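Hi Y.,

Following your request, here is the sequence exactly as I used it, all 380 residues.
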Amino acid sequence: MMRIYKKAILPLDFQANGIASGIKKSGKLDLALLYSGIPAKAACQFTSNKIQAAPIRINKKYLKEKRDYQAIIVNSGNANCFTGNRGLRDAEETTQILSKAVGIKKNSVLVASTGIIGKRLPLLKIRNSIPKLVMGLSRYGIDKAKTAILTTDTFAKEITVKFNIGSQIITVCGIAKGAGMIAPNMATMLCFILTDARITQRALSKALGSCVNNSFNCITVDGCQSTNDTIISLANGASRNNLIDTDNKHFNLFLKALNIVCLELAKLIIKDAEGATKFIQIRVEKAKNFTQARHVALNIANSNLFKTAMYGENPNFGRIIAAIGASRVDVGEKDIKMKASPLNKKEIKVAVSIKQGDACATVYTSDLTPEYIKINAEYN
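Below is the corresponding structure, written out as C-alpha cells. Let me know if you'd prefer a different format.
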C-alpha cells in the first residue's frame, strides 16, 4: 500500500539545508544542499533546449563517469547560463568547494541553478556560504532546502510516498520549483527526488524516464522552454530492501511510487503558474497512440486564444477546434467531440475525442491572465 504525505520527508541517510547567501537582493534563502551520507546512484533528465546552462553541462560531464554521487547543490536567483567558459568554471568550482567541505570527490557533486540568464554567478558569495550550508545539514533541513530553490513560485512543491518491500520501508521524497517558462520536453523547472531504495542503475533510469514522460512532459504554462530544466534522482540503498531491477516484481511498486511523486509535483507547478486563476486538465481520447494524443492536447494547452478564453470563462470552443487543426493531425470535423466542465470553477476539465484509435493522454495547463504579463514584464 502506498502512503502519501503532502510534505517532504527525507529518506534514510539523507540530510539537507538551505541558507541565504546573498545571491538574491531580497535576502531570501537562495542556496540549498541535499546530501546522502552514503554514495547513491543518480538518474537525471535535462532540458532539450539547445542553449544549456553551465550546471547542466558540468552534470553531463560528471555523469559520463558512471560513478556514485552524494550531493546536489542548488542556487536560485542566478541561472549561470549564457556565461561562457567562465560560467562553466564557476559551476565546476562550486562542486569543488562543496566537495572539500564535506570530504567527497568533486565529481560526486551535482549542481543546479535557476534565475536570471546572462549574469555571472556570484561565486565569492557561494564560497563564503558553503561552510555554513554544510554545518547546518540536518534530517529536518529539507524545509529550508525546498524554499531556497524557489524563484517566482508562491509556494514550495513537495511530496513523499512510502511503501514496503517485505519488511523494509522505502521512502521516495520529491521537491520542485517552477511557475513560469513551463513547456514540455522536460518542462521548465528544477526537481529533486531522493529515495533510500536499493535499485539498479538501469531500473532507476528506466523508471525516471517513464514517469517524466507522463508528468513533467505533460504540463505547460506558457510554451516557453528554459535553459536550466533539471531533474535529478538519487537512490542510496539505505533501506537495504531486496534489490529492485527492471525484471522483478519490485520494479512496478517503485515505478508506481515514483509516478505519484512526479505527477503530483507537476500538477503543483501548474497550480502555482504565474498569474493563473485556473487549473486546466485537457484529455485527448481516441488517438492513434499516446504521442499523438499528447501532441494534440499540448497544442490546445499552448493556444493563447484557448487560455485567454478560459480566463474569461468564455465558452468559445472554436479555439479548441482551431488548435486541433493547427496540430496537423488529419481529423475530420465529424470525428471531433468535445465537452468541458463549468468554466466558472477554479479547476476545469476539457475532454476531446478525435476518432483515430484507442489511445489517450492528459495534459495540464493554466489560463493566461494580465497578471502573467505583469510578472514577466517586470522580471529582471
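The CA atoms of residues 281 and 364 lie 5 Å apart.

Thanks again,
Q.
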